[in-house]
From TrEMBL, chain A:
The protein, known as: ABC transporter permease subunit
GO cellular component: plasma membrane
GO BP annotations, alphabetical order: transmembrane transport
Organism for this UniProt entry: Halovulum marinum
Topological category with respect to the lipid bilayer: Multi-pass membrane protein
InterPro entries, sorted: ABC_transporter_permease (IPR051393), MetI-like (IPR000515), MetI-like_sf (IPR035906)
Lineage of origin: Bacteria, Pseudomonadati, Pseudomonadota, Alphaproteobacteria, Rhodobacterales
PANTHER family found in the cross-reference section: ABC TRANSPORTER PERMEASE PROTEIN (PTHR30193), OSMOPROTECTIVE COMPOUNDS UPTAKE PERMEASE PROTEIN GGTC (PTHR30193:SF18)
Top-level taxon of origin: Bacteria
Transmembrane helix among keywords: yes
TM regions (residue ranges): 6-24, 54-78, 112-133, 145-164, 201-223, 257-279, 299-322
UniProtKB/TrEMBL annotation, chain B:
GO cellular component, one term: plasma membrane
PANTHER family, per the entry: ABC TRANSPORTER PERMEASE PROTEIN MG189-RELATED-RELATED, OSMOPROTECTIVE COMPOUNDS UPTAKE PERMEASE PROTEIN GGTD
Family: Belongs to the binding-protein-dependent transport system permease family.
Domain (ABC transmembrane type-1) ranges: 173-365
Name of the protein in its database record: ABC transporter permease subunit
Highest taxon listed in the record's lineage: Bacteria
Family matches, as SUPFAM superfamilies: MetI-like
Organism: Halovulum marinum
Location relative to the cell: Cell membrane
Membrane topology designation: Multi-pass membrane protein
Pfam families the UniProt entry points to: BPD_transp_1
The organism's taxonomic lineage, starting at the top: Bacteria, Pseudomonadati, Pseudomonadota, Alphaproteobacteria, Rhodobacterales
Keywords: Cell membrane, Membrane, Transmembrane, Transmembrane helix, Transport
Membrane spanning stretches: 12-35, 179-200, 207-225, 245-264, 285-308, 346-365
C-alpha cells in the first residue's frame, strides 16, 4: 500500500479508534458494569467515578510506560551487559571501556563547553533582544524575524551555516561570508570547520542562532510582567536606563531566566543533528549525543552506546529533579 | 514607560540601530540560502550571494578559442563566440594567466609570428595568422566579464521534479509529510483525555502522575532508541511508518499532557460544576465543554509537534531507516551534504524546500506557538 494512503488511513483509524475507545469504555462503565440505577445506584456511581480517571488516562499511561519508562530501564540494563556474550552481565565494563576512549573524553569536554556557552549566549542575546524590541514601534516584526530560526530544522540550519563557513581556494571569490570578510581584511582563506578548537564555537553559533528567539519570547513576556511601580520608583530615584535594566528588571525576572537557561541546557544535551550534518564529530567536534549514535548505529556496540545514553540521562537528572520539585510546589 | 523622566533621544536611536543590527544578523544566514536557491551553480560558485543583485564582474575560467578556419585575403581566419548562449559584456581580457586584464575589449593582441587575436565586447573573437592553424595549439583567452543579475527557477524544477539532479528530494518531501501529519494528529486526543483526568478528576495518585509527566518531559529520547527498536522488530513494525508514528506519538505525549493540563486547570470551575449539577457525565463535559474551550492549547501543541516531527532527524533515521525511498527531508539533506557538499544550487534549494513548510506554519500560527511556549515554560 502506498505510504501516503497508509498515512491517511492511519489518521482516520487512529482518531476513530481513540474516540471509539473513550466513548464505548465510558458507556460500558456507566451502563453495564456499574449502572447508576437499581438498589446500588449510589455505590455504583462512586465506583464508576473511581475507575473513570484510569479509563481516561489508560492509553496515555500505556504509551508513556512502554515508550519512555521501560526503555530507560532497558537501556540501563543494556549498558551493564555485553551483547557479544549473549547479553551476559558485565558490570561496569562498558563504562570502563568508554572512559578509556579518547573520542568519549573529547565528547565530554565539548559537551561541557556547549553547556556553558550556548545557554549563556542564547539567554544573553534573548534578553538583549527582548529588552530592545519591547521599546520600539516595529518591535513585533523584529521579534518575528529573530524568532524565525526556531521553525528551521537543525539540519536545515546546518546547511544555512555551512554556506557561511564555505571555503574557496585563495584567489577565487569567496562565497562564504566569513571567508569573504576574512580575506577582505587581508587573511588567507580558512577551512573554518577544521580548525580546532574554534570549530566547536562555530557549531555552537548555529544553536545560539536558533535558541535566541525562544529565550527572547519567554523573557519578553516576563519583562512585561514586571510591575510598573518598581520601574517608576527607580526613575523617580534617578536611576539611568542601564541601572533600571540590571538592578530592577533582571533581578525580578531571575526565575524566568533560570527556566530559559535550563530549557536550553536540555536542548544542548540532546544536540546531535548539527554536529552530524556539519562535521560528523571530526576535527575534535564530537559531542555525547552524536557519539552515542555512532556507537549504537554505526559500530553496533549496544553496551557502550547505552552507557553513553545513560551518561546523558545522568546529566539531565538534576534538571529533572528540580523541575519535578517545582511542579509539586505549584500543585499544592 | 522606562524613561518618562528625561527621555534620551540619543538612546532611542541607539536602540533602533541595535535592533536593526540584530535583525540583519539573524536574517542574513537564511537570506543567503534563499537567494542562492535562485542562482545557477556557476553563479553561486563564482561570487557571494550578496553580490547577486548587482551586475557582476568576474574572471571567467580560461577558454581555448576554436572553430573552423577560413582563408581570407591570404590569411587564415578563425572566428566565433567565446561564450555562446550567455549574455555578458567583456570588460578586459588577456592571453596569459599572468596578465588576465592586458587588453581592452576590441583591442588586437599580437601573439607573435604574425598571429593576431581580437576580442570584442560581445565575446566575438577573431584569430588571424599567416599559416593554417591546423594541428596547432590555439591560444587561451582569460576574460573578465560582467553579466546582469539573473535569477532562475530551474533549481526548484530540478530538485522537485527530476529524479536525478535532486536525488529524490520530491519523494522525501512526501515522506516527511507522511511522517509528520499522523504523528501530529494522533497524540492530541490521547493526551487531551489524560490531561482532563489530571486536571479535573479527583483520584489517589494524581499528584504523583503529574510529577511523572513533568519528569518524562526531560527524559532524552536517546535512551529509548534501542529498546524500542527491539520491540518494533519483534511485533513487525521495525523500520516502517507505523513504527515512526508510534514513536513520535509517544515522544510528544509528555509535552502534550503537560501543556493541555496546565491550560485545562485554568478553565473556570463554575462551568464544569454547573454541567455536573445538570447531570452531564465526564465524557460529555470533556467533549462538549473542555475540548472546544481548549482549542488554543490544542493548536499550540499541534504546532510544536508538527514542527518537531517535520524537522526531526534522529527518530526518522532510527525508526524509518535510511533506505532511499523512505528517506525524510532532513536525512536527505545530510546525505546531500556528504555526497554533493559542493553543489550549492542543489543543497540550497533542497534545504529551502525542507524549511519552507515549517516557516509557513510558523508565520501563520506564530500567536499559538508563543502562547504554547509561555504556558510550557513560565509555569
Amino acid at each position: 500500500m502506498h505510504p501516503v494512503l497508509q498515512g491517511m488511513i492511519t489518521v482516520v483509524l487512529g482518531v476513530g479508534i481513540c474516540i471509539g475507545y473513550f466513548y464505548f469504555s465510558n458507556q460500558f462503565l456507566d451502563k453495564v458494569l456499574y449502572p447508576a440505577r437499581g438498589p446500588n445506584a449510589g455505590r455504583n456511581i462512586n465506583r464508576a467515578n473511581m475507575i473513570r480517571p484510569w479509563l481516561f488516562m489508560g492509553p496515555a499511561i500505556f504509551v508513556l510506560a512502554l515508550y519512555l519508562v521501560y526503555p530507560v530501564l532497558a537501556t540501563l540494563w543494556f549498558s551493564l551487559t555485553d551483547r557479544d556474550q549473549g547479553g551476559a552481565f558485565v558490570g561496569l565494563a562498558n563504562y570502563r571501556q568508554m572512559a578509556a576512549e579518547p573520542k568519549f573524553l573529547e565528547a565530554i569536554r565539548n559537551n561541557m563547553l556547549w553547556l556553558v556557552v550556548v545557554p549563556a549566549m542564547s539567554t544573553a542575546f534573548g534578553l538583549l533582544a527582548a529588552q530592545l524590541t519591547d521599546r520600539i514601534s516595529w518591535g513585533n516584526v523584529a521579534k518575528s524575524i529573530i524568532f524565525m530560526p526556531m521553525a528551521i530544522s537543525f539540519v536545515g540550519a546546518s546547511v544555512i551555516w555551512k554556506l557561511i563557513y564555505d571555503t574557496r581556494p585563495a584567489g577565487a571569490d569567496q562565497i562564504g561570508v566569513l571567508n569573504a570578510i576574512w580575506t577582505a581584511l587581508g587573511g588567507a582563506p580558512q577551512t573554518w570547520l577544521t580548525i580546532e578548537p574554534w570549530n566547536n564555537f562555530l557549531l555552537m553559533v548555529v544553536l545560539i542562532w536558533i535558541q535566541t528567539g525562544f529565550a527572547m519570547v519567554i523573557l519578553s513576556a516576563a519583562l512585561r510582567g514586571i510591575p510598573e511601580e518598581t520601574v517608576e520608583a527607580a526613575i523617580v530615584d534617578g536611576a539611568n536606563p542601564f541601572q533600571i535594566f540590571f538592578k530592577i528588571k533582571v533581578p525580578q525576572i531571575m526565575p524566568t531566566i533560570v527556566v530559559v537557561w535550563t530549557t536550553i541546557t536540555l536542548v544542548v544535551l540532546k544536540v546531535f543533528d548539527i554536529v552530524l550534518a556539519m562535521t560528523n564529530g571530526q576535527w575534535g567536534t564530537q559531542v555525547l549525543a552524536n557519539y552515542m549514535y555512532d556507537r549504537m548505529f554505526r559500530a553496533f556496540d549496544w553496551g557502550v552506546g547505552s552507557a553513553s545514553a545513560i551518561v546523558i540521562m545522568l546529566l539531565v537528572t538534576p534538571i529533572l529533579v528540580w523541575n519535578v520539585r517545582n511542579a509539586r510546589r505549584e500543585m499544592r | 514607560m522606562d524613561n518618562i523622566a528625561g527621555r534620551k533621544s540619543g538612546l532611542t536611536w541607539a536602540v533602533h540601530i541595535a535592533v536593526v543590527l540584530l535583525v540583519i544578523l539573524w536574517l542574513f544566514p537564511t537570506a543567503g540560502l534563499f537567494v542562492s536557491s535562485f542562482r545557477t551553480g556557476d553563479q553561486i560558485s563564482g561570487s557571494g550571494w550578496w553580490a547577486a543583485f548587482s551586475t557582476q564582474q568576474r574572471n571567467e575560467p580560461a577558454v581555448r578559442v576554436g572553430g573552423d578556419e577560413v582563408q581570407q585575403g591570404g590569411r587564415f581566419v578563425l572566428q566565433g563566440d567565446l561564450f555562446p548562449n550567455r549574455d555578458m559584456t567583456i570588460k578586459a581580457w588577456g592571453t596569459s594567466s599572468r596578465d588576465v586584464e592586458a587588453y581592452e575589449p576590441g583591442a588586437t593582441a599580437d601573439l607573435g609570428d604574425g598571429v593576431t587575436l581580437t576580442l570584442d565586447e560581445g565575446g566575438t573573437f577573431t584569430l588571424a595568422g599567416p599559416e593554417s592553424f591546423e594541428g596547432q595549439r590555439l591560444p587561451r583567452v582569460f576574460a573578465t566579464a560582467s553579466s546582469p543579475p539573473e535569477f532562475t527557477l530551474a533549481n526548484y524544477e530540478n530538485v522537485l521534479f527530476s529524479g536525478t539532479a535532486g536525488a529524490g528530494v520530491g519523494q522525501s518531501f512526501i515522506n516527511t509529510a507522511t511522517v509528520a501529519i499522523p504523528s501530529t494528529v494522533i497524540p492530541i486526543l490521547i493526551a487531551a483525555f489524560a490531561a482532563y483526568a489530571l486536571a479535573w478528576m479527583d483520584f489517589p495518585g494524581r499528584a504523583l502522575l503529574v510529577a511523572a509527566v513533568v519528569a518524562l518531559l526531560v527524559v532524552p529520547l536517546q535512551l529509548a532508541l534501542i529498546p524500542l527498536l527491539q520491540i518494533h522488530n519483534v511485533i513487525g513494525i521495525g523500520k516502517t511508518y507505523m513504527g515512526t508514528w508510534a514513536a513520535h506519538t509517544a515522544f510528544g505525549m509528555p509535552l502534550a499532557i503537560y501543556l493541555l493540563r496546565n491550560y485545562m486547570v485554568g478553565l473556570p470551575r463554575d462551568i464544569i460544576e454547573n454541567a455536573r449539577v445538570d447531570g452531564a457525565t465526564d465524557f460529555q463535559i470533556f467533549v462538549k465543554i473542555i475540548l472546544p474551550l481548549s482549542f488554543p492549547a490544542l493548536a499550540s501543541f499541534a504546532i510544536f509537534q508538527f514542527l518537531w516531527t517535520w524537522n526531526d532527524l534522529l527518530v526518522a533515521l532510527v525508526f524509518l531507516g535510511t533506505d532511499d525511498e523512505r528517506l525524510v527531508l532532513t536525512g536527505r539533506l545530510v546525505n546531500l551534504l556528504g555526497s554533493r557538499g559542493g553543489d550549492w544550487e542543489i543543497l540550497a534549494t533542497s534545504a529551502f524546500v525542507s524549511i519552507a513548510v515549517p516557516l509557513a506554519v510558523f508565520f501563520a500560527m506564530q500567536r499559538y506557538l508563543v502562547r504554547g511556549l509561555l504556558a510550557g515554560s513560565v509555569k
